[in-house]
Write a structure and sequence with these properties.
The protein is globular, with a radius of gyration of 18 Å. It has one domain: 3-Layer(aba) Sandwich (Glutaredoxin), CATH 3.40.30.10. It has seven helices and seven strands. The protein has a five-stranded mixed sheet with strand order 5-4-3-6-7, with helices on one face. Strands 1-2 form a two-stranded antiparallel sheet. A hairpin with a 5-residue loop joins strand 6 and strand 7.
């Protein structure tokens, strides 16, 4: 009886590992969008001071500039591993603007992560509405980190990248700067 229980527990653990590894991993969306929807643009976020701002307002702040949107959270191990390469991408592209959208679970977590990971000098916003919202749903956000490149007209130039090392990010930036 004890052996059967032990075997059942192992089967359960292996099943959960498989589901986690393959069932909840990033999957490239079927449609790679080139524009933001009206609902996505209206999505509100908060800055570190609690001021609300919409995605549309953020894009207006970066009008006529190339913008890289970086989705991250302090609890996300993959995001933390990506930080050094994201910093390199920023340094390599000084004329490109970077905005960091946090998926922390609370305002306190957001503020702590900004300090802990030395993000206070960067442009950061937090989805106070949580992961499921009009913007994240529209961009098919199913995992983080995630990167989107926005062109000078506020259109989506690179819809889906899961690492700052994705060569298509730099290729897209290079094409937009010509």
């Amino acid at each position: 009886m004890f052996v059967k229980i032990l075997i059942m527990k192992r089967i359960l653990v292996y099943t959960l590992l498989l589901v986690f590894q393959f069932g909840f991993s990033q999957q490239v969306p079927k449609v790679l969008k080139t524009k933001f929807s009206k609902e996505a643009l209206a999505q509100k976020l908060q800055d570190e001071n609690g001021n609300e701002i919409s995605i549309n307002e953020i894009l207006k702040l970066h009008k006529d500039k190339i913008l890289v949107i970086d989705f991250w959270a302090g609890w996300c191990k993959d995001c933390l591993k990506a930080f050094p390469k994201a910093k390199e991408l920023e340094e390599k592209n000084p004329d490109v603007n970077f905005v960091f959208l946090s998926l922390e679970r609370s305002k306190e977590g957001f503020l702590k992560s900004l300090d802990r990971f030395e993000m206070t000098e960067k442009e950061n916003y937090w989805f106070s509405s949580g992961w499921k919202n009009d913007f994240n749903n529209y961009v098919d956000l199913n995992w983080i980190p995630r990167f989107i490149v926005v062109d000078q007209k506020s259109d989506i130039a690179k819809y889906y990248a899961i690492s700052p090392e994705d060569p298509e990010i730099q290729t897209t930036i290079d094409k937009l700067t010509k």
